[in-house]
Amino acid sequence: MTRRTTVPAFSDHRRDHGELLYVYPVVSRRAGGLSIGINLNPDKVCNFACAYCQVDHQTPPRTRTVDLDVLESELREVVEQVGSGELWTLPRFASTPEPLRRLNDFAFSGDGEPTTYSGFEEAVERVIRVREEAELVHAKVVLITDAACLHHAHVRRGLSRMDDAMGEIWGKLDVGTAEAYERVNRTLVPFKRVLKNLAEATSVRPIVIQTMMLRINGHPPPPQEVQAYVARLQELEERGALKEIHIYTVARTPMEPWCTPLSDEELDAIVAEVTEGVSAPVRGFYGPPEGAR
Ligand code: SF4
């Protein structure tokens, strides 16, 4: 069963850290520790327009371009703060419990789709370099992706470098049907393309599937939609092992007000149904407590 974890730092997902433009440390529920986020989309432009998107589109971007030299020096700065323990003295992180004060990963995430950045491969190289220089080879390099661009040559090369460095792909699959995909993910990228890319990625290495399940206009996903989603996961498992499936729900302000969190019971029921249908471990992550919704 999914457990609610109440750690103040979990509710703070600000993608800023002092004056830094691209690098932001967060204590992550799903990572179970510190994740050093790398934002390759500071312009907040994405190839999807997910109805539940929780990127802050109200605050204008501080920059619209990526400068990899600046990014690399920001990475070094944060790594140093972690190494020296200074990070845990900052007000935002001071209440983090001891077991979570471990660096789990470097994660390409942020305010859009990381693989749409043309310098993705070089960005992977820079992260690996900083990680190795700091002797943090236990920390994973994670790509959080909507999977729409995984077939592009420069992205494939970046993924292959990640594979050599404990890389992990967290691929988005929120739905089981093209109709639901149109309603939830709102993109010109065909659903078939995303499924093909996820299948190809799975056939090369085990990937994590990350899924947002939510209420739309007050209604949880209908049973046939959940069944179709499980069928898509089964098709992926025919291509290769899935590492884990993460099912979460709305936890912060979504783009559309008609997107609301599932109740804990609804999430538990979906996690149970998915667990029945697949081989991979399934983890659920609750939304905010009832009173805080
Ligand atoms: S893929 Fe991520 S960043 Fe892009 S719209 Fe969807 S939730 Fe937002």
Strand order of the largest sheet: 1-2-3-4-5-6-8-10
Any guess at the CATH architecture? Alpha-Beta Barrel
Distance between the termini: 21 Å
Name the CATH superfamily classification.
Aldolase class I
Percentage of residues in DSSP E strands = 15-25%
CATH topology: TIM Barrel
What class would the helix/strand composition place it in? alpha/beta
Large-scale geometry: globular
Helix content: 25-40%
Our count of domains comes out at 1
Main pleated sheet: 8 strands, mixed
Mean pLDDT, to the nearest integer, reads: 93
Ligands, ions, cofactors: iron/sulfur cluster
The unreliable regions are none
Main traits of this protein?
TIM Barrel; eight-stranded mixed beta sheet; two-stranded antiparallel sheet; 32% helix; globular; binds iron/sulfur cluster
What does this structure look like?
This protein has an eight-stranded mixed sheet with strand order 1-2-3-4-5-6-8-10. With 293 residues, it is an alpha/beta fold. Helix 1 runs parallel beside helix 2. Strand 3 (103-109), helix 2 (120-133) and strand 4 (140-145) form a beta-alpha-beta unit. It has a single domain, classed as Aldolase class I (TIM Barrel), CATH 3.20.20.70. It has helices at residues 68-84, 120-133, 153-163, 178-184, 191-204, 223-239, 264-277, and strands at 23-28, 33-39, 103-109, 140-145, 167-172, 207-212, 215-216, 242-248, 259-260, 282-285. The model has no long low-confidence stretch (mean pLDDT 93).
In short:
By secondary structure, the chain is α/β, with parallel strands linked by helices. The chain has helices spanning 68-84, 120-133, 153-163, 178-184, 191-204, 223-239, 264-277; strands at 23-28, 33-39, 103-109, 140-145, 167-172, 207-212, 215-216, 242-248, 259-260, 282-285.
